[in-house]
Amino acid sequence: MIGFLVRRIAQAVVVVLLVTVITFILLRAIPGNVAVAILGPSGFRNPALLAAFNREYGFDQPWFDQYLMWLGHLLHGNLGFSWTLDQSVSSELGQHLPKTIVLVGLSIILALVVAVPVGLWQAAQRNRLVDYAFTGFSFLFYAAPSFFVGTVLILVFSVKLHIFGPEGPQGGLVSDLTDWRDMTLPVVTLALITMALFSRYMRSAVLDNISQDYVRTARAKGASQRRVLWRHVLRNSLIPIATLLGLALPAILGGALITESVFNYPGMGYMFFKAAQQQDYPTLLGFIIVVAIAVVVGSLLADIAYAILDPRVRYIRS
Amino acid sequence: MTSPPTEEGPLISGLGGVVSEVAVPAAATTLPAGKTRGMFVRGLEVFLENKLAIAGGAVLAAIFLFCFLGPVFYHTDQVHVNLAVENQHPGAGHPLGTDNNGYDVLGRLMVGGQVSLEVGVAAAVLATGLGTVWGAVAGYFGGLVDAVMMRVVDALLAIPVLFLALVVVSMFPPTQTELILVIALTSWLSTSRLIRGEALSLRVREYVQAMRVMGGGGARAVFRHIAPNAVGTIVVNATFQVADAILLVVALSYLGLGIRPPQTDWGGMLNSGINSVYDGYWWQIFPAGIAIILVVIAINFIGDALRDAFEVRLQRR
């Protein structure tokens, strides 16, 4: 187990380092020249000024030294400075990241609360009407672009029925949790997409388990269908869902980006989208590093959770 | 290509097998009599048993015809803005109404569909090709090569596709061709992982060993033996790649960073319709939205059936 943990963490560190290399390559691929932007065209043509500028910011160093310098900044928590917003990228993150965490967290909880029982039910009713109906639903929400789902929800629940607000809560974190009128639609939109994925996996995980020997033993003991499903099958079927949570994190964050822009919800995804429109590269690259680290840590935790939950895995890996 | 003689089962007898077995219960298909039939026919048979796949294929064919042949019969001006006819309800001259620039929505659905489908298919083909070569090379050579190549894949996978694609298109506003490249270059990763897994199991097979003994090199192993034998995984994966690529280009266009006007795709139509839809102009988003859903579902049905077809083909070998 320890060996597995050490190897897995070392791998995660290597991957994060590679992400910084990719980001640095993107950073250097940005069109335009920083010196022109800051010194202006006339200053740029003055060799002495240009040389002084390059020396001050390290542009006269070889690219490898520049990378190390940039990496050093990153390790000190300096993710860059957004000239567009006149704000450091880390303070921007401090404002908007918590809102995204609340949105993603709430919608994952909602998706699980719905998808787990639905998947279980579908598997129990395999190839009957209920199963086909929910399979149809999950295909529909898998195929529908999230912004289309969001727009339709706004049209129905906000424009027609006036139950919920058309825009996410604009205030701080407290407003996210108290303003259910505005918060419901963004959470539901994001949850519907993940729900489709989770219920499919849950269904097949339950089907895998239901043919196992331990289920037959439980049935032979005289356990009722309800007890077999909820006490025996449910627990074992949740194990693959733990892994799926880690694997689905990039997709969920992508969905959050779209959902946030549909509902003007000022989270990280919305800021990222704004930054892409305004070509605010420091913000884009700073956010990318943070998102990538979140994904790597997420899949690391999922792997560890899997190894803890399912003792058989440890023997296979070691 | 090494192909066992049973694979070459004559097509005629294969078809005969299908016809003769129509009246026989399904279990009979597993009898040794099936041995003489070609693998392709057997796969096709399983594929055609799947009603959803046939429906999916029909829907997809209909949409392709609608987008590529439709404009031949239904002429509209999709270049010049005409504000005199903006936001018109569906009616006589415009079966699906007009959008906020006065473009006919039905005509735009065809033109936009061409871009969505072209970008989706081309990007999926490129991504599958790149992913296959990358994964096959990593899996076949193993060791350090494999470790380095797969860590690169891990690192790129850590950045969500939409984020990476947004950064690239914001740096270099893309034309249609460049959009294909961007999507292909950001979505080959999952393919490469799958193919690497296949390559790991294929490289220890006897026929690859035999080829090595006869002095065959790495390139020959990858392109002549590993890749062709992973063709089931490759084809199935390519199908799903098309659906994902269409959804990605739609997302980019919706965010305003995809295809530039006056060209458009289904995502671009949703983007321009979304502001006026709250005024009750439902026809500006629903046709494109429904088209996207139909195409993606149809492709998924086909992909599922292909997977079954290839699996059965392998089982009955």
What topology emerges from the helices and strands here?
The complex is a heterodimer of chains A (318) and B (317).
Chain A: H1 2-29, H2 34-45, H3 47-57, H4 63-75, E1 81-82, E2 87-88, H5 89-124, H6 129-143, H7 146-160, H8 173-178, H9 180-210, H10 213-221, H11 225-262, H12 268-277, H13 281-309, H14 311-317
Antiparallel strand pairs in A: 1-2
Chain B: H1 11-20, H2 39-49, H3 51-73, H4 105-141, H5 143-158, H6 161-171, H7 176-186, H8 189-202, H9 206-213, H10 218-229, H11 231-254, H12 266-273, H13 286-315
Helix pairs in contact in B: 2-13, 3-4, 3-13, 4-5, 4-7, 4-8, 4-10, 4-11, 4-12, 5-8, 6-7, 8-11, 11-12, 11-13, 12-13
Number of separate helices of chain B? 13
Write down the secondary-structure element order of chain A. Answer: HHHHEEHHHHHHHHHH
Q: Biggest β-sheet of chain A: count, sense, barrel?
A: 2 strands, antiparallel
Strand content of chain A: under 5%
The secondary structure category of chain A is mainly alpha
Write down the overall geometry of chain B.
elongated
Kindly report the spatial arrangement of strands forming the biggest sheet of chain A. 1-2
Which stretches of chain B are low in confidence, meaning pLDDT under 50 for 5 or more residues running? 1-34
Percent helix of chain B, as a range, is 55-70%
Largest interface: A-B, 50 and 41 residues
Taking pLDDT < 50 over at least 5 consecutive residues as the criterion, the unreliable ranges of chain A are none
Number of helices of chain A: 14
Give Rg of chain A in angstroms: 25 Å
User: CATH architecture of the largest domain in chain A, please?
Assistant: Orthogonal Bundle
CATH class of the largest domain in chain A: Mainly Alpha
N-to-C series of helices and strands of chain B: HHHHHHHHHHHHH
| Mean of all residue-level pLDDT scores of chain A | 82
